[in-house]
Amino acid sequence: MAGDVASALQGGPLNAIGIAAVYARTELNRPDETHLLTSSHQPLLTRFGPLDLLGTIGNGRSYECLLPHAPEIELKTGLRVQVLSLEELG
Residue 56's beta-bridge partner residues? Predict the structure, then answer.
């Protein structure tokens, strides 16, 4: 997870409603031949609200580059998510 929700999960302010996630661009994460392998922004509107899927962030940093900077956090529901550190979000 990246963006405002990642910050809020670590005690920061929540300035926007919506989730931004950086995804691994692999064959397994691809819904069809034309989606998700690019580094571009994939804005989606779900029944739960906006979801921004990002192939890369910043200066072309990919999921694999960001993974060491994304500690796992357990939510109250027991779900464990990886959240980009506040240092990397800044």
Answer: 62
Counted domains in the chain: 1
Q: Which domain holds residue 9?
A: 4-89
Report whether 45 contacts 84 (CB < 8 A).
Answer: no
> Which pLDDT tens digit goes with each residue over 6-27?
777 777 766 666 677 777 777 6
Outline where DSSP puts E strands in the chain: 19-22, 41-46, 49-54, 56-57, 61-62, 72-74, 80-82
What does the radius of gyration of the chain's CA atoms come to, in whole angstroms? Answer: 13
pTM, to two decimals: 0.63
